[in-house]
């Protein structure tokens, strides 16, 4: 009963996007095709979604989170600063009748480092280019293994970080995979 | 907000560090919604949870559901136990209420199931 990428993509086409995108927050919807390709790779090649607890940083209206939930995440938690986006995300969750999604309004840049230690996977398609984004750092150890994998048929960088040798106090980080589109 | 999510959240008010966990829940509206039981997921989550905080949170909502205060050996094979954990982690949701930072006292409102953890620039860690 494995969902095909095209099936996932056609579901994601039903996800409502921003009604009035806010320029200052660099809001733009992740397109269904890109979201489906990215999530399909994360799920089928790396097995980092099914039965995992996933965080979606800068979730906006929830395109990636909804796809993640549909691919069998145990729980997907979306984080975003904008309550208007989260309201649309909530509506999307209700329409899809998904029960494995939660969401939090916050500025991900100011969350504590240890907040994500228990997540299995973090995915993001964050805003790029404003000065605040340079602070999108988590207490990453210097020695991480860096993978770069092109998605199926489009020129989009999908960057996957995994932690080979995390420092002792952050043992849980060993299991944490971060996907950045 | 599910209790699994609550167990992952800590306060990031400047200076509180690890004393910002767990956030104290005050709920004015709680909802119980069915979620498909997935024993593999529940089994994986248990070691990731701060168990005492989970039990306290469930109790504060009146949904302790006979969870033991300490984990017993061999819980992975106890389906009845796993179902109780599943219920508490995923099916009990705080719809309206507040979360309180145990160190600073700062309140974070929960509205329509969504905690608002936005801090002012002065409150956030530099």
How would you describe what is shown here?
The complex is a heterodimer of chains A (181) and B (126). Helices cover 24% and strands 20% of the residues of chain A. In chain A, strands 3-2-1-4-7-6-5 form a seven-stranded mixed beta sheet, covered by helices on one side. Chain A has four helices and seven strands, in the order ααβαβαβββββ. Chain A has 181 residues and is an alpha/beta fold. The radius of gyration of chain A is 15 Å and the shape is globular. Chain A has a single domain (5-180), classed as Vaccinia Virus protein VP39 (Rossmann fold, 3-Layer(aba) Sandwich), CATH 3.40.50.150. Chain B is built from four helices and four strands. In chain B, a hairpin with a 6-residue loop joins strand 2 and strand 3 (107-111). In chain B, strands 1-2-3-4 form a four-stranded antiparallel beta sheet. The chains are: A alpha/beta (181), B alpha+beta (126).
Short description:
Chain A has 181 residues and is α/β, with parallel strands linked by helices. In chain A, 24% of the residues lie in helices and 20% in strands. In chain A, helix 1 (5-12) crosses helix 2 and helix 2 crosses helix 3 (63-70).
CATH superfamily of chain A: Vaccinia Virus protein VP39
Q: Any low-confidence stretches of chain A, pLDDT <50, length ≥5?
A: 130-156, 165-175
Q: Which CATH class of chain B is shown?
A: Mainly Beta
Spatial order of the strands forming the largest sheet of chain A: 3-2-1-4-7-6-5
- Outline the biggest β-sheet of chain B: 4 strands, antiparallel
Total domains of chain B: 1
CATH architecture of chain A: 3-Layer(aba) Sandwich
Report the strand count of chain A.
Answer: 7
Low-confidence blocks of residues of chain B: none
Identify the CATH class of chain A. Alpha Beta
Distance between the termini of chain A: 27 Å
Major sheet size, sense and barrel closure of chain A: 7 strands, mixed
User: Biggest chain pair contact, residues each?
Assistant: A-B, 25 and 35 residues
Strand residue content of chain B: 15-25%
**Compute the gyration radius of chain B: what is it?**
15 Å
| Strand arrangement in the largest pleated sheet of chain B | 1-2-3-4
* Proportion in β-strands of chain A: 15-25%
Keywords (chain B): Cytoplasm, Nucleus
GO molecular function (chain B): protein heterodimerization activity
InterPro entries (chain B): Trm112, Trm112-like
Subcellular location (chain B): Cytoplasm, Perinuclear region; Nucleus, Nucleoplasm
């Amino acid at each position: 009963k494995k969902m095909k990428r095209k099936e996932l993509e056609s579901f994601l086409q039903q996800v409502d996007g921003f009604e009035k995108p806010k320029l200052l927050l660099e809001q733009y919807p992740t397109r269904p095709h890109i979201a489906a390709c990215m999530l399909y790779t994360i799920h089928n090649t790396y097995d980092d979604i099914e039965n995992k607890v996933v965080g979606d940083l800068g979730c906006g209206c929830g395109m990636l989170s909804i796809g993640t939930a549909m691919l069998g995440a145990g729980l997907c938690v979306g984080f975003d600063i904008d309550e208007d986006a989260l309201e649309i995300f909530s509506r999307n969750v209700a329409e899809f009748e998904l029960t494995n999604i939660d969401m939090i309004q916050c500025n991900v840049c100011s969350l504590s480092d240890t907040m994500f230690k228990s997540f299995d996977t973090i995915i993001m398609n964050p805003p790029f280019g404003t000065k605040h984004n340079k602070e999108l750092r988590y207490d990453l150890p210097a020695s991480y293994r860096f993978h770069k994998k092109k998605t199926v048929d489009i020129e989009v960088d999908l960057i996957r970080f995994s932690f080979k040798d995390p420092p002792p106090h952050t043992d849980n980080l060993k299991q944490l995979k971060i996907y950045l589109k | 907000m599910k209790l699994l999510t609550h167990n992952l959240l800590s306060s990031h008010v400047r200076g509180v560090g690890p004393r910002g966990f767990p956030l104290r829940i005050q709920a004015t509206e709680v909802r119980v919604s069915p979620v498909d039981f997935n024993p593999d997921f529940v089994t994986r989550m248990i070691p990731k949870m701060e168990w005492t905080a989970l039990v306290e949170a469930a109790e504060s909502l009146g949904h302790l559901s006979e969870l033991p205060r300490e984990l017993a050996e061999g819980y992975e094979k106890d389906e009845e136990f796993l179902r109780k954990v599943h219920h508490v982690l995923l099916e009990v949701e705080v719809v309206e209420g507040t979360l309180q930072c145990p160190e600073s006292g700062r309140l974070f409102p929960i509205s329509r199931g969504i905690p608002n953890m936005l801090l002012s620039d002065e409150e956030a860690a530099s």
